[in-house]
Amino acid sequence: MLIKIIRIIAVLFAVTAAASVLPRLYDTTFSSRGGRGHKDIRYSEILKDFIISEYVYSSEKSHTAGQTIYYDRHGKSYSRDSVDQLFLLDNVSQLAYEGRFPDTICGMAVTPELVSSEAFSQYYSAQPGLYYGLCELRDRKSYTSRSLEPRDLFRITPEGIQFIVCETNQIDEEKSRRFTTELTRLDFRFPALRMWTSPDKSVSEAIGYYVTDSKNYLYCLSMELSTPVVQKLEKPDNKNIRNVNFGKSSDIRALLITEDGDTYIQHPDLSYTRLALPSSLGKSGTLNGNLFYRIFTLPDRNRQTTFVFDRDFRLLDSCSLYYSPRPQSTAGVFKELLLPLRIGQTAWNGFYADWSPIKRFIWFNLILTAIALYYKRKNGNRLSDAFTVTDLLLVVVFGIYGFIGIFAFPLKRSQKEIVKSKSADL
Amino acid sequence: MTSATKIIRLFLVLLGVTVLAMTLPDLYRKNFEERPVKKLIYYSEISKNFMISEEFSDTLTHESNTVYYDQTGKQYTEREYNRQLPFLYTRKLALLGELPDSVNGVKFDQQLVKSTKRGMLMPVSSFNFQLNPLFESESGKVRPEQPDDLFRINRHGIEFLNPETNRILPEKSRLFNEALETAGFQAPARDIYGIPSTLKARDDGYFIIDNEGELFHLKMVKDKPYCRHIEKDITVSSMKCMVPGDLYAYIYDDRQQLHILRTDYSIKPLPIRPGNGRFVYSVNCFYKSYKNTDNDSIRLYVLNADYDLEDYHAMENDSYAKSSVAQIEQYLFPLKIMITPGYAHLIPLFNPPGRFIWLNLFLMLVLAGIKIRHHRNLRDPFNWLDLAIAGAFGIFGFIAVLIFPNRK
Amino acid sequence: MTILKHLIYKEWVKTRWFASIALLLNLGVLVYIFMSLRSSFLSAGGVTYLSALLTYKTQFFSIYRYIPLGIALLVGISQFAPEITDKRIKLALHLPLHNLRIIYTMVVYGFVLLALCMIPGILIFTGLISIYLPAEITLPVLQTMLPWLLGGFCAYFLIAMIAMEPVWKFRFLYLLVSYKVLSLFFMHLPIGNAVSLLPVLCLVTCLSSIAPVYTSYRFNKGQL
Question: Which residues of A fall within a CB distance of 8 Å from C39?
Fold first, then answer.
């Protein structure tokens, strides 16, 4: 009895494995060629609207050529040349090379250097990344001398902050005491929950670390000429912080995501502006900036949404690009007939199970169930047996995965059962 | 054992010696190597001196300090040293507000700093695909665009390939073949050198060595072929093409001597002694400096804008090879086998015989003792061969002979 | 002659299931590599895919690296493990043939089986990738995979050698030596750089093929 239950668990594992692997094998073998292509979306400062570009294949059997087409939200199409004229901020290098860079854009006096220096691109995430709790604190004045280069790493334990000298693996007691005293003076409750710094070394040097203590208050920890510099910071709307990203442009000190998924910009003067964005929980997005705009892009299961803000972080416009969830190609249709679900994992959604529409796969499932039933009868399994029924149900629900599972782990019958069934036949 | 088996055994012993020669010296070094003193040398465009920094670290006290001096021996503080090298410490000097206004009469701004190029030159021969994209050289765009085909030069001449269909484009191939023949090109090509990436400011095409060893320059200009024979009196061993500047490429000849190929197609040997052929270069509009580090010394050559020797300094290098640990290694092991980078070869590096011969002789005697104790036949020539192997290959031979014993 | 046929049949019975798994494994991985290549090629477009491959020298076939070694282990261990348990090799050596001939019939059988498992797959693989890749890429790919194939053969011969060795102390030492020797075959080298090492690797493989003569010596002259 126990063995049979363990067998069912094994069959379910096989079903899960098959449901992860087979759809991918199918996609690799029958990649859809032609038709859909890569889509991209940009915001034109001239048009004050979005332009979508898509790479399409003009699919002929032996000769595939692809080209990029451009169109706006309302479906109006644009040629490559007219599109080039709508994106001046993006084309600085080419226009400057040709000597065609304008003196003003949208009424503002510009030079190529000004526009290039204002352009930046960064990722930001609501999910905190890999974290060891051991970090390097750079001195703000480390550029003045090599003797101020960091030689230790620090961690914040329930006892206080500890600096561990790399060469000796020992704690620098004096330095640790100085910093612990300063943190305690500002009501820091040890241990720290989490610490963040910028991946950019010079920004990390200038700002230091953002640290949340065990009561979820936010501090900024830094060091100048070996003395601790600690500052207690306001939290955005007094909410607890989930993740901190540091900014790449001069008007954004940091991007904070709070525990309810809201996104806040922290300005260099430490004030906050809440962004009119949907919940970012579990997601990472991109932030592209230029002279006029701050453009946020957030992914989702079937689509990607782009939000355009002005330099004061007021939302101007937004647009969603949909990735077709139900591909129309023959390969896609067959996939829905044969494979009932797909199990996978993404960074922002964790594990997911994507089911095909029932009316598509149920027919193949029933055929497989009939085959399984035939084999079961041939082997003498009775329908009165609960485990046989379970097997068949697994095939009805999970189709080919269930079929593979139940035959990968065949229902072994004990000697007693074989004798019993034979005597029942007689 | 039969003679045949004994011979096979000898080959196995030699295999064992090879394996040990690859493993043991490496293990020894990893265990006993000490951190060497780090020495850096740069040329100051401001004071025209060679600025040297030497870092000492004491593993006992875990202190480390750096001293700064120039080739005359005059000492500098860290700040003074940084000020002499504005191209190297740009960010630091900017934060301290100590950037110079101008260098040698030229305004010191962002553009001047960006014009400095640094990189490495190595004569290592490594595999390269003989299939490359031929860019449009004068497209009017700020960067070259990825073309729709790839070219190769085999015994049929130049062939353009459409990657989508894996077929040859006959028209374009014929057009370029004519240009190659007119220039005197002998197919197939031995080597093709260029920068097959779109991340460059300008496309200079490719430099190709034909079957006779002659050098040609191939470009596509407004969809038309451009092929030109370049006169030279050296044998080209390898080339490294440069991002656009005043040079097309560096050339290593068959004696590892460095030459430059300038944009006027002149080839000039650089006044630099080859050494091991590996150079770190730093070039800007004032000087071109080339640094070579080998086991004995660090040499820095400074050339002017015309690539003539302006200044030169050499100093002793503290490398592993000079440490006492490496000296002891020479007493222990007769050789070590290493695998070359690039095209993989197994290279034996022999230590001076006068050093390891003592251990070898000792091990030979030990082996003889072992053989006598096991009552081996001392008139058997194979036993003497064993002793010879231990004598020649020292500890490797000793261990290998014992791992593959003569079976009675 | 019939004795040899029976001997070969005995080897076949020992190894048939493992060799079938090996054959399927070999074909499966190679076909998967091709499918993956095809899928990437079609979705990125030929131009983009090839220029990325040429620039970054991506080894799209690198998952095949240890498959020849795995095949050698499957065939070698299934063939020789039964022989060394309880020294069952003695049974075969009672046959009226010279001992070395018996042993080498087994080794040659294994070598041929290995070749049959690996070579057809490689030939099919070469034909398949040539649909999408020009010769300038296909040849260096094969040159890079060749040391792994040689490593598989060498590993098989070394397994035979180690199996024939009676003393466990020496078996362990030969295992260490084999590990180091095989590491020459499976180095992580960039595409095409292994071609200069091939002569040495062929030499080592040939040497390892006669190594079982040395360790099986004790069976000569009726000593068991």
Answer: 27-29, 31
- Predicted complex ipTM: 0.91
- Judged against a pLDDT cut of 90, whether residue B28 lies above it is answered with yes
**Final residue of a structural domain among B244, B261, B277:** B277
- Ranges of each domain in chain A: 2-29+356-425, 39-118, 130-279
C154 lies within 8 A of chain B by CB: no
DSSP classification of residue B132: B
Domain assignment of residue B376, given as a range: 3-33+328-403
Answer yes or no: do B145 and B105 share one domain.
Answer: no
Domain count, chain B: 3
Give the whole-angstrom CA distance, residue C213 versus residue C104.
8
CB contact under 8 A, A94 and B78: no
Q: Rounded to a whole number, what is the distance in Å from the CA of C214 to chain B's nearest CA?
A: 6
The verdict on B91 and B138 lying in the same domain is: no
| Residue A139 per-residue DSSP state | B
Chain A nearest-CA residue for C48: A66
Say if residues B82 and B93 touch (Cβ distance below 8 Å): yes
Query: Which residue, among A28, A38, A57, A58, would best test binding to C if mutated, counting the most C CBs under 10 Å from its CB?
Result: A28
Give the pTM.
0.88
Q: In this complex, do C136 and B9 lie within 8 Å of one another by their Cβ atoms?
A: no
**Are B170 and B46 in a shared domain?**
no
Q: Does some domain include residue B408?
A: no
What's the pLDDT at A425?
60
The residues near B129 (Cβ < 8 Å, ≥ 6 apart) are C54, C57, C136, C137, C140, C191, C192
Which of A144, A164, A169 has the highest number of chain B CBs within 10 A, making it the mutation to test binding with B? A144
Q: Find, in chain C, the residue whose alpha carbon is nearest to that of B128.
A: C192
Contact between residue A222 and residue A237 where contact means Cβ atoms under 8 Å apart: no
Residues B128 and B266 in one domain: yes
Beta strands B215-221 and B224-230 are antiparallel
Residue in C49, C180, C191 closest to B23 by CB: C180
* Whether residue B309 is found in the same domain as residue B336: no
Instruction: Name which residue leads in pLDDT, A193 or C91.
Output: A193
Residue B343 lies in a domain: yes
The span from the CA of A212 to the CA of C216, in Å, is: 70
